Amino acid sequence: MNRMVSADLTGHLSAPARTQSEGPKVLRAGFIPLVDASILIAAAEFGFAAREGLTLDLVKDVSWANVRDRLAFRQFDVAHMLSPMPVASMLGLGSNPSPTITPFSLGRGGNAITLSTRLFSRMKETAHLAENASALDNARALARVLGVMRQTGETPPTFGMTYPFSSHNYEFRYWLAAGGIDPDRDVKMVVVPPPMTSDALAAGAIDGFCVGAPWNMVASERGVGRIVAAKQDIWPSAPEKVLGMRPEWAEQNRETVSRLILALDRAARWCDDPENRDALADVLSDHRYIAAPVEIIRHVLSGEFSLDAQGTRRVIDGYFVFHEGHANYPRPSKALWIYSQMIRWGQVRYDEVGVAHAVSAFRPDLYRMALAGEDVPTGDDFPIEGVDAADRFMDGFVFDPSDLPHYVEAFPVRNQAPDSARADEL
């Protein structure tokens, strides 16, 4: 049952007028049980979609491949998606590369990297890690352990991420490579659905994972994992989840898309307000959505981490940003950074056609059309990312979207020979 908000919401401004003839008013939306689905869930539960004449029929799914396929096969109208998924689809990557675009980002933050307590203990012993060791210190400590494992003939660790074309894959690889570890040679990377990561770590099936909240903290609270890096440590403004849709559906339902963006914009503002965290956490913890302990979700929303079961704490300001700082704007430069990582890890080769396809996945024109007259970016500028001291990459690199080949070639750890088979995974 929808919950109507008591907060005063602004009107439509210059949004397109509603019509009775265009498109569905009930939108079937797929999502994975993660805190970064909050905006979609809040829009459905707290009346933001209803105020725009829309009903969001939210469908919980089990894997990103399922979400991708169900959107492609028209079982979903829109979907909660990993930010690289539309880019991969427009590049023709994956087993079912149906064209997908995004006109709206679902915020920033939420990911972390967790290693098994056994592996982390070995890192502490080998590298004499301090309790407040940085993400880069942790990566370098892991590199030292891997060096010992190679000398003794031990099987390298297996690490889980959620999908080959995911922020989790690229951030995990970025963290490993910053520490001098080759993700394709020194460790084994496998796909594990987000809700299964904690159990897989507890069972010893994997030795670590990168996934979205709340599953890192679930593992640390259970005493099976130690959080060693957060998304903000790797690159604070790294793109995370987006609203995905088929381009022809967006074209045929432009007014509905605009109303949906308006609803999500209002929901994002509401989610960012600390006064609403308890209400949001209560809804997210429901079995229909994340089905995780409400106290863990409250801590996650506040950026309050239990790094391990011994009570080691860390607070990350802005661990989740749902709206502030144009967090919902689908900036094309972010799509190009994703493309650069696909090149770096051998999923695709660089060419100018690929650049155009990557940029076409992010649609700021639809975002601006829906929110015309509001404080939104007015151009498709491609800024140099990582120059701002508050938004640095962990290894000190900066990203100039105008010079992709040089950027990729400058990394000392990268895949030297693109493998077409990897691009067809899942």
Automatic annotation (TrEMBL):
InterPro entries (UniProt xref): NrtA/CpmA_ABC-bd_dom
Keyword hit for Protease: no
Signal peptide extent: none
The keyword Cell inner membrane is assigned to this record: yes
Subcellular location: Endomembrane system
Keywords: Cell inner membrane, Cell membrane, Membrane, Plasmid, Transport
Gene3D superfamilies for the chain: Periplasmic binding protein-like II
Main location: membrane
Xref: Pfam families: NMT1_2 (PF13379)
Protein name per UniProt: ABC transporter substrate-binding protein
UniProt source species: Peteryoungia desertarenae
